[in-house]
Structure formats: C-alpha cells, structure tokens
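Worked problem 6 (solution included).
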Amino acid sequence: KYCSNIIRNGKVIVRGTSCEDKNNWMFNRREVLENFTIPQLAIPGTHDSASYTSPSDYELWVKELTKRWAITQ
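Solution. The predicted structure is:
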C-alpha cells in the first residue's frame, strides 16, 4: 500500500485518499457493486479497462489511431 500525505510540523494536515488499503476494495464496496453486471464495470488497473468499444462520434483519424486499443480480446 502506497500513499502520500502533507505533513507540517510533524502533523498530517492532508491525508491522501490512496492511503486506503486497496486489496479488498471490491468486497468493501459490495453493497454498491452488487447492483452492477460485469459489462457495466470499468475496473481501474485491469487489462483494457473501459475499452470494450470506442465512441462512434469520434473523427475518423481518431478512430483509426485508437482502433488497436479500443476492442479487447
């Protein structure tokens, strides 16, 4: 677990939100997450998160540039 804090005169004045232990983050938020289906979740840090498809309103050059990463296996 890693985090950053702002400490002044030996006292923590701002605690970084990333200080929370993330090992069980899905379990700790199960009351919220249990209402979603797997396709509705974009899980940060997982392979190709939120890249199932690309938006259809992008200009053609953007679609061509991102096509390789837009569709997961």
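Discussion: The longest strand covers residues 11-15.
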